[in-house]
What does this fold into?
Amino acid sequence: MRTTASSSAPIAVPGGPSGEETDSGGADSTQGEALNADSSDPTKPASAGAFAGPANPPGLPGVIGSAALSSPSDGVSPSNAVDSVGAADGAAGAAGCAPSRPARPSRRVSPPGLLAWEVYFLTYVAGVWSLRHFEPAMWTAALFGCGLAVFRWPDASVLHGHGGFWRVGLTRACAAVCLCALCFAGGRWHASAMLLPVPRLPDLVAQSPSRALVRARVAEVTDKPFGRMEILLEDATATFTPKPPRGDDESVAPPAPSRTVAVPGLVSWDWDEPDYRPAPGQTVTVELRLRPVHGFANFGGSDFEWRERLRGVFVRTYARGPIGEDGVRASFGPRPHVFFWDLREHLRDRLIDLLPRTQGGAIVLGLLIGDRSLIDLPTTDELRMAGLSHTLALSGLNVVYVAVLGLALAWLVGLLWPGVYLRAPRPKLAVLFSFPLVAAYVWVGQASPSLVRSAWMFGFWGLLLLLDRGRALIDGLFLALVLICALDPLSVYDVSLQMSAVAVAGMALPYAWVSALVPRPAGFFGRALHWGWDAFVLTLCANLALLPITVWYFGTYPPNFLLNLPWLPLQGLVVQVLGMIGMALAPLPHLSAIAGALLAAATHAQDWMLVALHRLAADGWFPTWALLRPLWPELLGAGAVLAAAPFCWPRPRARALTLLIGGLLLMAWPQARLLADESRDEVRLSVIDVGQAQALLVTAPGGRRALIDAGGAFSRTFDIGRSVVGPALTWNRPPRLDAACFSHPDIDHAQGLTWILREFRVGRFFTNGRWPEGRLDGEMSASLRDGVNGGRLRPEPLAAGRRIDLGSGVELSVEHPAAGYEGRGTNGNSLVLRLTWRGRGLAVLPGDVDRDGIEDMIDHGRELRAQVLVLPHHGSKSALSGMLYEAVAPRLAVASCGFQNMYHFPNKDVAAELASRGIPLVDTPERGMIEFVWTAPDAGFSLRSARP
It folds into this structure.
């Protein structure tokens, strides 16, 4: 069944040699309204999409929007749209409405392009983005405005007369630029109006992590991975009771009275291993330790505080264990009767009872209702390495599988009543059946934001298909995004929405062009091969579009996207479809046996897939690449290159080639700046914000880098090397280090190195002569053996007197421990390094050395004078030493420690001692990442920090 492209869609007019098509643009209005044209007459201008130029000469269509659908037959076919679902991955699955292939292999196919209102909407999105990232958003909006101005400039062959040509062209160009500016300003204003201001927290909450009796109402309950549950509390009050005085003189100094304060915003309560599931609206009284939201602040790092602010969360807390004296001290009020919540909880309980207790069953539970709490860490890690972690989140992919059920229902109804197809063709009938199924699935999935947005996208795609409109995929995507942003403009900052939109756009725009590169062969086997080619193209286009944004956010990329080709159809069309049918039957008492059999079949299929995945992972089939994290000019340039590439081959077009070259220059510019920075004669010391841990980076002239410690955490699920240190090191830098070392093998200094040694090219690896024990021993040994360095790295122990040469006169001299020195613990044997430049002391990096180690250094007459002192042991009192402060004589001291840490580092006595000597003190909780820059050995340093 064919559909006719709408009047606003770009149309190609036949007329080129050898059966090729040439595009004839027409003059459109400033508002993007296309002129009506007679497509049967090649001499008349056809309607053109905006950003596609109002009047493109033959053979020169607009770069982004003039790309015509080759003919009405190259538009979107509803049968194509529904029958091809499940052929691609992720959000790409929704590309069931992808354009059909051209009838003739020689025909040139171009992407559908963007209409004027879609470009104006993108400038509105840039305005929203400017609230947090003004410079990149402004340049992006400027690019769209200039593009519209260029493509709206009329062609001299259409407008006769020199004066009229320039007058009309200038008017249209100025109008396009002004409209873009208005959209940009409107987006910024709309976002700022919706953004919650940061409230002033009560002093008892803001100053120290004190335990309080919290009374609140449950606003939302969300299941999290690894047996954790997040409860959002609203209308919370906290009662703080001071600790009673110690000793027997309580009657002399009565305890201070309790104080009750209101907690602004929402409180995020992470409850590990809970034994009770509250309901929204239920009251709770619980004893918790409240902390203000505070994340790692590093240059180029993720902004956790901003993400929580978007949710209205300003205070966080954590608890573990069941309710009771030894666990969580909590009491809940009467459970409110909420019909839909109770019905969903009953369904969840039935599924848990019927599903087998395997990891396959845990994944099936997550696919059906979004509950991933039963999926363990090893399974999650293997899926992440294989590039399949997106299959665990409810998104557009799952909505597509629900649509498959609608297609099956339409097919079944057609078998029973064939005449129904005379009233509603099967593709449209499938869409109509899918609408209620998708709505029910959104409810079962707790209406998570990603699932709701995917449902809106599917709804608009289905509506456009029902209306027989062409360009359903790209226009439906934009219509859904307009609605989403109108309701909540701040959703632009949601990573899942960004990735879904980019993946769908990546398929909708270049898919037809890439697919047409291989002619469609005849015969059944030829068609089958071409279906496989189409699935590969959809997956390739989605992953190419996602590559820049994935690397920007995560700094890594699993090059295993082809595994999506067998995995997604099996998981979606077998596991999830069987599971959804079983879930529909589970609440019915008389059909529970059938439901159990279907759920068991889905679980066994998923378990078989996990077994195969585990074997492949054990054989090393799933590498993960750490890559350079691009800056915003590179992201903008990559977008321009991807948009222009289809118009530059096989026959380059002038405007497309200009955009392509501009994109390449944008991608090259940050690297040129990097080369210029590395050529400067300067030394940098970066104290990375890693919480209650330490990670230091030394950068020498020429870009040579040495990492001293890489932080660490005791969490079983959080890898600080992968999530914090690695992204900080790859911010516009390749994943390479000339040297890496740990000062001593404690977790808070060495654990992050396991990921760095596995994923980074490292020149040499140094230690203090000791090696980690327990689990950290196995992880670090495996990183050295199986990492990208191929087992060539060997730990090199350091002792006093050794030097690490970084070139250009920059050295790290080892001042402690002396050969044969034995401290009383791991801290006493910590490496103490002195950063020097042409013999001048810049900084002393003492790890966690204690007083005994400090005294041993001074007794041996080590040279320690330097401008900066990193406080030993994070500013602990156990390392307080006036002799050290006198020997170093620093201009400034810095402490790497955690926000509101339980040890109260930096210790107040340490701060007082430094103040008495006139030495300023800064710390990472207050300043975030701290960077010292020296431009000459004899010059002072400049300082900048991630927090103002």
User: Anything to note?
Assistant: The two ends are 61 Å apart (CA to CA).
